[in-house]
Known about the structure:
- The structure is a single chain.
- This protein is mainly α.
- It has a domain at 1-33.
- The protein contains two helices and no strands.
- The chain starts with a helix and ends with a helix.
- Keywords: Coiled coil, Membrane, Transmembrane, Transmembrane helix.
- This is Membrane-bound metallopeptidase.
- The chain crosses the membrane at residues 6-28.
- Residues 74-108 form a coiled coil.
Amino acid sequence: xxRTELIVATAITLFVAFLLGWFAAWLVHxxxxxxxxxxxxxxxxxxxxHDAEEARDQAVTYMQQREADLTNxxxxxxxxxxxxxxxxxxARQEAEELRAYVERQNAG
Length: 108
């Protein structure tokens, strides 16, 4: 094989490699191409995800507010219960004092 045949064989090999590379790139591009309908679907999914996140944030805010309201109501109820128990304790003590007074009056 002389020099000219070597140059031609190398040129043909490089051209075939170029064609195979171009065909492979075209094939990959063709297979992995995103269609307009797929882009629309992706946009729709992104919007739905955004809406779901906003709804979740609103629900968390509502639950935190509701928890604060219930905690406040519980504190008020406990304060009212303590006041009622103190009043009941005082009423029982007064009733005992009156009972003791009546018994002293009846005995004396």
